[in-house]
Amino acid sequence: MKKVLLVTCMLVMNVFFILAQGTAQITFEKTTHDFGSFPESSPKVTCKFKFKNTGDGPLVIHQAIASCGCTVPKYPKEPIKPGGSGEVTVIYNGAGKFPGHFRKTITIRTNSKNEITRLIVEGNMTSSGKK
Hints:
four-stranded mixed β-sheet
């Protein structure tokens, strides 16, 4: 009986500990970016998505996954304190890709109240005229 009571108390304490930490909330300034037109001769373009932790618990970004290997997201690996901010840098490299319009998605997984956020980058790589 003592063991059951001890285990129950430990579980209740863990639940209160988790609740006391608060919940993170990631809020992006914007979730889409249009690179506009850029030449095939300069195929690498970069943008930054700024965000803030508007929750009352530490924010942790678990993953940032791009829909294509030509798009590389970089994000902070350390927890973001409540009220703190950070940025996700997205690099699109169109080298070896056909010119034209593109639209890529970056899926951000966090411990935030809304666990998944999708960022979108798009643009138009124009042909350099070389064949």
